[in-house]
Every structure is written in C-alpha cells, then in structure tokens.
Amino acid sequence: MLSRRTSAAAPLDAENSQPDGTPTSTAVEPGGQAPLSRRAVIGWAGAGVAIGAAGVGSVAAATMDGKGAPASAPVVGAEVPFYGEHQSGIATPVQDRLHFAAFDVSATATRESLVRVLKEWTKAAAAMTGGREVGSGAASGLPQAPPDDTGEALGLPASRLTLTIGFGPSLFEKDGVDRFGLRARRPEALIDLPKFPHDNLDPARSGGDLCVQACADDPQVAVHAIRNLARIGMGVVNVRWSQLGFGKTSSTTPEAQTPRNLMGFKDGTHNIAGTDAAALADHVWAGPGEGPEWMTGGSYLVARRIRMHIETWDRTPLKEQEDIFGRSKGEGAPFGKLRERDAPDLKAMPEDSHVRLAHPDSNDGLMILRRGFSFTDGTDGLGRLEAGLFFLAYQRDTRKAFVPLQQRLAGSDALNEYIQHVGSAHFACPAGVRKPGEWWGQALFG
Amino acid sequence: MLSRRTSAAAPLDAENSQPDGTPTSTAVEPGGQAPLSRRAVIGWAGAGVAIGAAGVGSVAAATMDGKGAPASAPVVGAEVPFYGEHQSGIATPVQDRLHFAAFDVSATATRESLVRVLKEWTKAAAAMTGGREVGSGAASGLPQAPPDDTGEALGLPASRLTLTIGFGPSLFEKDGVDRFGLRARRPEALIDLPKFPHDNLDPARSGGDLCVQACADDPQVAVHAIRNLARIGMGVVNVRWSQLGFGKTSSTTPEAQTPRNLMGFKDGTHNIAGTDAAALADHVWAGPGEGPEWMTGGSYLVARRIRMHIETWDRTPLKEQEDIFGRSKGEGAPFGKLRERDAPDLKAMPEDSHVRLAHPDSNDGLMILRRGFSFTDGTDGLGRLEAGLFFLAYQRDTRKAFVPLQQRLAGSDALNEYIQHVGSAHFACPAGVRKPGEWWGQALFG
Lengths: 446, 446
Known about the structure:
Two copies of one chain form a homodimer. The two termini of chain A are 39 Å apart. In chain A, strands 1, 2, 3, 4, 5, 6, 7, 8 and 9 form a nine-stranded antiparallel β-sheet that branches. In chain A, helix 2 packs antiparallel against helix 4 (219-232). Chain A is globular, with a radius of gyration of 22 Å. By secondary structure, chain A is α+β, with helices and mostly antiparallel strands. Chain A is built from ten helices and nine strands. Chain A has one domain (87-446). The interface between A and B is large, with 80 and 80 residues.
C-alpha cells in the first residue's frame, strides 16, 4: 500500500519550506495513523495518470514503497503540502485548471456555525490536497447515511491540488452590520475596490464573504474539492458565484514555456517567480505590523472576470494586435528585440501598449503575482464566445498594487477596446495553516 | 526541425487503418511539402507537455528526427490521423476534454457558401488535428490583415485533437423548406427524436443544423479548434449552442481505469472498445445499403445534456446510491460480485437499477458507443452546481439503439429522480475524409 505523503517527499513549494529547506508539512495526521491515498484505497496505485504536470517540477516528488524506500519512477499528479507558513496556491507553480468559488454566509448563520464550517473545511482541505477522501470516504461508513465524500475523485491522484481561502470585505461588515464581531479586525488594505473606467460589473459575478481557489492539474479534482466544501458548508455558506478556468495564463515558473491567453499572445513573461523569496517578500506577502496580525504572511487577492471580445479581436490585423501588446505574436519578443525574455525597450513600444503601461518600469517598480486562467463558458445569446481571462493577482497591499496599476490601464490601455471587466472581487488571504489541528481563519476568529 | 506527422507513425485508431493495418493517412500535404508542426515552428520541439494521455496508448506514437530515424522518447500529446475510412473522434480512445458546438446555417447563406465553408473547415481540421496552425498561421502573413489562426494554441502539441462533423435533421428540412436541396438525401435513421418521459429540453441547448465535436487532451487545443472553425464560418454558420466537458465518463479503452461520473460511480465499464472491429461494425458504423450511400461508414450521434441534481444526490444514503446503479460505489462491482468487470448477475440487482435496465442482456443485445463527458457550468441562480453529464452516443441506427434504450430508461430508471435531460440533439456523422483534397460532406453535397 503506497502513501505518497511522506516526510521524505521533495517539497514542491518554496513557501512551504522553512528557510533551511525543511518541509513544514508532516506525514502523519493528528490521529497518528498514516493516511491512505485515494489511489491506494482502490488498489491501482501502480498506474500513472499523467496530466499536464511535466515541466513544472512536480515530477520530482518521490514516492515510497511499502518498506519506506524511494520508488524509482517519478510521480506526476503529485501532492503539494497543505501546511506551511504561507497558504499554498499562491507561490505554488501554477496548475493547469481552476475552480474558483465565492461564498456568502447565510443570513441565519452564527459566528459559531461559521467557525465550525471553517474547522471542517480545513480538515477536508488537508485530506483532499493529500489525495485522500473527505471523512470516512465515498464508499465506506454507514450504508444508511450519505457518504462523507462525493466520490468522483476516487482513484485520482492529488494532482497538485491546492486550496486557498480568502475573506471578503462583506464578511467584516455588510450593510453597516458587524455580523460576526469582525469589524475591528478588518485590514485597511482590504478596501472596497473603486470603480474603474470601463468597468461593467455583474453583481452576481462579483464580491463574496469568502472565497476558495481550487487549483489542480485535473479539473475533476478541482471541481470535486469545491463541491465537497460547498456540501460541508450547506446551510451556513452558499456559493455566490463560481468560475472554472483552464490554460493558465501566467506561469510562476520562469523556466517553463510561457502560456498564451485567448488573444493568442504570451502572457506573464515577467511574472514574479514562485521561487524568488525576495520578490515574494517585497510584493506578495503582507509583513508584520502592516495590518492586523492575522494577515502577517498572508496576501491580498484581486479576482477580475475579464471578458474578451473575441470575434472583434479575431478581425484585427496582426500589426495592430502586436501594437496593442507591444510584443510580437509568435515569439513574444518586446518591440525591437528578438527573444521573449530580452529586456524590453519600453520607448520602442506604442505609448498605449499593454506591456509598456503595465511594466514595473512604468509603475515605480510595482509588481503583482498573477495567477490567471483562461475561461470559456460556452456562447452568449448572440452566438459569441463567452470567453476571456479570469485574472487572479496576489499582492502585499492592494492599495499600492492592483489599484494604481488598474487605474493606469483602465485609463489608457489600447487593449480596452477588446476587453471588459465584468466581475470583480477582493479577498484577504491569511497566512498558512502551520500544522494539523489549526484551522483556516483561526487567527482571525480566535 | 521535427515533423511528428510521418507515415511511420503508429496509427492510434483502429478505424484509421485499412484491414491489413496500413495507416490510411499520409505524411505529406497536397502541395508535396512536409507540414510543420506548431511546436516546430516556434522552436521548442524538444520539450514535452504531458497531458492526460498516459494509459490510452497514444504515447506509443513514434517521432522521427531530422534524418528520418525514429526518436527514442515517446511523445505524449500526439496526433490522431485525420484521414481514414471513418471519422476519428468516434472509436478513438476518449480524450480528456471536450468542446462541442452546434451550428445553424444563417438565413442568408446559400448551398454554395455552405459548401465553401465545409471545404475550408476540412482543410483547417486537417491542419489543427496535425498540430499545425490554420492557413498561414497566427504570426505570419500580411501585417495589415488579421492572422489566419487565432494563435492561442501556438506551441501546444496536437494533444490527440479530433474533429468530428455531423449533420442535423434541420439541415435537410427546416419548417418544411428544403433550403439546400438535401431533403431527398436525409437518412431515414436521422429521425426527429421523440419526446421522452421527464424530458425538460431547453431549445437554446438543443438541435442544430451542423455539429462539430472537438476532443483533445488539452482544453486550450479543443477550444482553439472550435473557435477557429466558428471564425471561418462567420456569416454562413453561427454557433447555436456549445458545451465544454471534462473527465470523460465512458472510456473506449477497456484496459484503462474506468472513469467516474459526477455521482461518484464508475461509468462505462462495458462500453464498446474502440479496437473491437466486430462490435463497431455491428453497433456503430452504418453499413452499405442501410441508408443513403453517403452515410456508409458513418454513425449517428445523439447528444443529451443531462443535468444532475447534485445536492440531492449528495444527501442520498450510500446503500440507496448503490441500489440505484446496481453496483458498489468503491470498486464498481455489480451486485453480488467482487470486481468491477465480473459478469453481472442482473437478477441480483433491483429491477429499476440503472445497470440492470441499460445492460445489453435486458435489451436484446443492444449496444451503443458512449463517449460522454462531465460538465460543470458554474452555479445556477439558487447556488446549486450547474453540473452533470454531457452524454454522447454513437450508433448504427438511432431508431434501434438510443430510442428504445432511452424509452426504457426514461420510464423506469431509479436514476430519474436525480437527473433531468435538459438538452438534446441528433446528427448524422458521415464516413471519414479519406485523403487530402476531399472534404467534409462531399458525398452528401456532391
């Protein structure tokens, strides 16, 4: 029987290691029993399922055979440690698929019931990110009771699933009411986002008291995770909106091939690397004393649903497309340069080009960690592709990062003719759960 | 420079081989020039992108180096031959992702304009399934003109993309009008599907003059394909509805792990194998003289969007869930048996169980080739998961296969309490395009 979760497993994430490289996660659950993987439970642990993990380093994770010796074959679809100083799913190498859900706390819920859900969510998240089932599983327990786990991920590996929680402004105060006694703990950086030029926000796709970002290399694993969390929260929290994504648009692993967005351009060439501890400290993690203590080591997440006017874009000449981005379409080289990663000469680009406007050199060195995904939600009533970019950005202080950047872009970016922001949300994502027994939001509610 | 398309490549599909095993596809395009792959064009052909192809045999496809010698490393994300006796995407080992689009021909279109689109579609389909760009590409051609290809699949391998075309009843006659002179060529088997008990069909998600099923191991490749076909068809055909799917629910490769549907049960244990030529001839391919000549070697496709009442299902006891399917949830063993593939004892199952009702032994040996995918389209207005099964089934004659089977299931299946059919369509998928220069629908229109 294999357990892929061992202390010898190579840590996949910079943020889940101590400075000396020791993984902070442990192999053993609170009960002291080594957990079984979903694959081991149904007895086909030897078969590999390869899903998009190659090239991002996860294949380096080692497995152990029954005697504790490292198995020779690398495992794709490996596990990202859940416990750590920071939440995983932020600096973690971007997975291939996303299921993002915003939740509202129901009108009848109490602080106590919400805390109960957060505790149960944490346990379930630790299990699912470890490739295990929720509770006693989908096929065990009392036959007279519904299974604890919905079962559709039975037999699938962990698939680098990460679950990242965030708290929205309305959790701290809604319509002037301090529902859960949290008003005094709201971070100043967790502002109500201002209205930006050209915004056309759908309230049904915006906001939310809580969010969970599920990323995995297999959509079935990501969907399973959100579904089981929603189920655990039933009666206390309800899904307000959700978004599926694919084709990550911003890699956080510079050595990997830069992915392309649905406009056909490389996106995220100069993103913050998940392994760059200095840049993460400067731009992504909230530092001590910068806000309430519970946010130290956390990060602020801005989510924007950006619809692309695909059909219009597809009728735009190549030269104009390249002028709008300030890069060549094929190679992705900045204007006047040959290769994608050549240092851009911003003055060689049109003044309203996207890369020029968004570049750190045009913004006093400002950087955000982007983690966006493409989406395609079928077609709208006019037969047009309902598609675009689900933009996710993590930052140390939204007031000094996304807000000034977006004000600049919304005012001048040549891209605005082809895109529209139709959903928006802002969340404070606390520091990581450091060890079993702790729970999501403990420092906030505790 | 690598070209992954060579005559030495192992055929991936039973249906794309002649009876003696010779691949029917060729390595060279009509112009006589060996085509370049998208990957070769941008110069990173050495890097592998592994996406869900393991275990279904596609990794066996060989590549050639510049001197024509087989490369040693297998390629994941390989190519499925486009040309052949039958269309690919039917008996082809099921890929991981789906983008399905139904199109209507616009009111102003003529037979000539439709034929022009079908010819252009065929050329584009041959290029994209070969991992190449449409036309002159996304980053070449006149800078004053829009690129021929939208570009978001640049750098991605073919990813086992298949594109399968079908013709709906309304193409042959709509509101009593024979728009394209095709009425006399309508197959008798291409019936207007009857209304089944419990149907709750949304016209906006049903029907269509044409359909294209795009399957690939990478959603970006499948989405790219449908988008580029829609773009080519602009003004002549418009997307009527489309559906994205993931997590194939019915494997056509018996040796692979049987996938699970969103109810958490294994689905498709006894599906027709894509390699079982006898079963395919008996149940999937239309035979000579059974209908119009243009359908010989083709197949009839029924698409049903089946919404699952996920939240209700998740509250159902394990025993009841297993009674409804007639299988155990964990192993998938039929009642009274130990292993998934043990021959079922139908009498041991409840009379209204899904497996008992749908089994060939309960239906005079009737079999259909299922190729369904799970879908999750976010949440509905009540916060419920908008999710279920996008059922795709191919058969030799719908009147003798899906219709009697669904009449039986819709009348008695215990599953009906938890599902609802909300979309429906029927298409005649012609035989394959045998060689470059031929086009989709040539035998129908010719």
